[in-house]
Amino acid sequence: MSLYRLIHDRLTSAPDAPILEIPGGPLLTGAQVLDRTSRYAGFLSGLGVRQGDRVAVQVDKSPEALMVYLACLRAGFVFMPMNAAYQDDEVDFLLGDAEPAAFIHRPETEATSRAIAQRRGVRHVYSLGEEGQGSFCREAETAAAAGIAECREHDLAAMLYTSGTTGKPKGAMLTHRNLATNALALVEAWRFTADDVLLHALPIFHTHGLFVASHCALLSGARMLWLPRFERERVMALLPEATVFMGVPTYYTRLLAGADFGREACRRIRLFVSGSAPLLAETHREFEARTGHVILERYGMTETGMNTGNPYEGPRVPGSVGRPFAGVEVRVVGEDGAALPQGEVGEIQVKGPNVMAGYWRLPEKTAAEFTSDGFFKTGDVGRLDARGYLSIVGRAKDMIISGGFNVYPKEIEALIDDLPGVVESAVVGVPHPDFGEVGVAIVKADGSLQEAEILAALKARLANYKVPKRVFFADELPRNAMGKIQKNLLRDQHQRLYNPLPLQSFM
Ligand code: AMP
Question: Of 328, 353, 9, which Cα lies nearest the Cα of 181?
């Protein structure tokens, strides 16, 4: 199943339909998108880029960047997007690891990008800016169109490096089948049609904006209102035109932060989707109270695409990520690897046509992340309820083991978040001479609460070993581009709370 074929057939069936609209700028029809895509593919093929070669792209979001992606699908190249925020060392590592045949970078980083690419032996280097400026479009726009490559379903379509907060990034190899089956499942689950207008404000270097959002629109022929990034004012201005909006939880809290956001702004919307990080139950409820809409939360990851989602029809449960999408199997296992009874907490494992082919050039790491019966170990910890709804309790590596007892931060964070005056919280484990590890909470609140009050409230509700030893207040919790709280930074900050520096360091 070639993903490109599906998109191509959809867009050629209504060639004049508007597909990609830049608010206040041009509007591209399906035929125009395909024309540019085929030229970009022709240009890269003309340079000598071959099927299976990686094309690394570190650019700002633009329609042209999306068409570079489609060009790669068309020609059978492996699209490799990179976060525009990556620094030189990160780019250097990724180019060295992936050995791409071509690298497209931001015009602003011309000198360093070229130097890194040259050092890493990348043959073809071009620039592409947010407005389509730069050497890539200048040369590719007029290239001869390429045909459509024959891609088999297990051929690689894209490679995304995972945002792992520890260790070296790993390239998740995604096949045409992975992307196509997941996209079709989402179009169906979320009832996408050509009448939809998707407000696209997510970055496209990540699964969420590149695959989830763009594929739903491209495979249904819906129109995308294309924003280079989430800017509250622009989103507010365009929301009344949209029927679907997808975001990370931060987008929703930012929308709710202004009194201007309410029913009127959402008058045409039929679906709000959230994912990539946990949506606080409180945000979920406040959103419903303000807009009448219940956000549909789904759960996925770079390696697997989308695994589960709350239903389109039926109850969308705050704090839950719903049931598996069509074709996906989900189980929760204990430490011995055996599936746990419903309600018990363990590691979430998934299997299905959505799960990646493996990590690029890391066969041992790949083997370690799969079970013998073919399930991928997500590293997320959760539980299934009686209806088969999944809740995520935390990341396995976030789990705190205090005096031999397992503590799941999510359980404690949920209680802290419910206290009046608390905006949000994060609980992390820090080394402790006696318990091995203890939890500390970092809380964003309105100033009305003291540490002792939070601790007293938790002691009344939790076993003592679960109660954090300390509470610290912060104006903001650190987040990455996808809205995930960077617990590693919080852990680093509080590393030495109970294990002070060795004596000699003071001398
Ligand atoms: P990434 O590979 O960057 O997409 O990150 C995937 C990870 O994000 C998952 O393994 C989860 O830990 C987390 N994640 C994604 N969606 C959700 C969600 N709805 N609720 C909680 N965590 C999520």
Answer: 353
Hey, what are 32's tokens?
A: 């125009």
Tokens, residue 117: 């690419």
What gap in Å lies between CA 409 and CA 393, rounded to an integer? 7
Q: What is the pLDDT of residues 200-209, one digit of tens each?
A: 999 999 999 9
Q: Which of 297, 354, 380, 391 gets mutated to test ligand 1 (max ligand atoms within 8 A of its CB)?
A: 380
HEC sequence for 183-244: HHHHHHHCCCCCCCEEEECCCCCCHHHHHHHHHHHHHHCCEEEECCCCCHHHHHHHHHHCCE
Place of tokens 């995930």: 484
Confidence (pTM): 0.87
What values do phi and psi take at 174, rounded to 5? -110, 130
* Nearest alpha carbon to residue 243 among 211, 203, 199, 287: 199
- Cα–Cα distances in Å, from 285 out to 48, 282, 318, 423? 54, 5, 8, 14
Burial (CB < 10 A; 0-12, 13-18, 19+), residue 434, is exposed
The pLDDT tens digits of the residues spanning 16-71 come to 999 999 999 899 999 999 999 999 999 999 999 999 999 999 999 999 999 999 99
Length in residues, the chain: 507
Ligand 1-lining residues (CB < 6 angstroms): 162-163, 207, 275-278, 297, 299-302, 321, 378, 380, 392, 395, 482
**235's tokens:** 């989103």
